Amino acid sequence: MQERPKFLVVCGKNKKRSRTAEFIFKNDERFYIRSVGVSPKSNRKITENDINWADLILVMENDHKQKIKKIYSHLEIPTIETLNIPDEYEFMDEELIEILTEKINSFL
User: Fold this and answer.
1) Largest CA distance in the chain
2) InterPro entries attached here (predicted)?
3) What residue ranges in the chain does DSSP mark as E strands?
C-alpha cells in the first residue's frame, strides 16, 4: 500500500488561506496536510523541517514560491505548485473553501 502523500500549504501569514486548507482537509484519509506562512509574522512560520517533510508544496501566490526557493536554496525542495489564490478571503470563507477543495483535489 502506498504511503499517503504529504502536502505543505503555504500563504503569507498562515492566518486565512493556508490555515483554511489545513482545517478543511485535516481529517482527509488520502493525504497529510500542514499549513505554514512565509512571513516572519506568521502564526506558524515555514521551517526546514516542513520542507523536508513535504512531498508537495502548494503556495497561494508565485511570490511565496520565490521566497521558499531563495530561503531554502540549500535544500532539496519538493515540487512547488502555485494555486493562484489572492489574499482577499477570510478564514473559512465559503468561496475560499470551494476554491481550495477544487484545486487541492486536482493534485490527487
Assistant:
1) 40
2) Ptyr_pPase_sf, UCP029416_PTP
3) 6-11, 32-37, 56-59, 79-82
Task: Compute the distance between CA of residue 94 and CA of residue 79 in angstroms, rounded to an integer.
Answer: 28
The β-bridge partners of 11 are 37
Cβ count near 67 (within 10 Å): 17
Contact predicate 32/56, CB 8 Å: no
Class of domain 6-105: alpha beta
Check: pTM over 0.90? Answer yes or no. yes
Q: Rounded CA gap, 104 and 71, in Å?
A: 25
Number of H helices, E strands in the chain: 4, 4
* pLDDT per position as a tens digit, 51-72: 999 999 999 999 999 999 999 9
Task: Encode pLDDT of 34-51 as tens digits.
Answer: 999 999 999 999 999 999
